[in-house]
Amino acid sequence: QGGAISILTVSERPSEFSGMLLISPLVVASPEVATPIKVFAAKVLNFVLPNLSLGSIDPNAISRNKKEMESYTSDPLVYHGGMKVSFVIQLMNAIARIERALPKLTLPILVLHGSSDKLCDIKGSYLLMDTVQSQDKTLKVYEEACHALHKELPEVSTSVFTEILTWIDQKVSAAGEPSHT
């Protein structure tokens, strides 16, 4: 949801941002999850039982790093309950807004996404790259990586942080600011 929020925030206040970096953003609904019958059922349930739990996130969909998954599943600050119907409806509304917002984006964009992400369909990152008007846009796909790239296996997470720092350093240097890396 963080990527979706970032896209919508930048689209509503473009003059306040000089670049956007997204890790595994939510841009489109997964076709396996958001089938027409499930979407219809969620809309109906939202009127009757908006707080109904639809199921929780499988921790194995977050990362292949077992140590990180143990930390995630034992963290008392992480909500481990199911997603509420009302939350799912809000996500679907956000996706519709993102679809309308993408063609208006012109700022530099870096998108990092795992090819095995089951939480945010990678097709959304490809759509983002095809739709935004930015001339400075990069998509880096991490083969077999899951959703939380910064919590992936060490070779992936190290590459992710290097990619992020390099991209930020390039943007800062291009703007004539002193580098801090």
UniProtKB/TrEMBL annotation:
Pfam families the record matches: Hydrolase_4
Lineage: superkingdom: Eukaryota
Residue intervals of the Serine aminopeptidase S33 domain: 2-153
Protein's name according to its UniProt entry: Monoglyceride lipase
Lineage: Eukaryota, Metazoa, Chordata, Craniata, Vertebrata
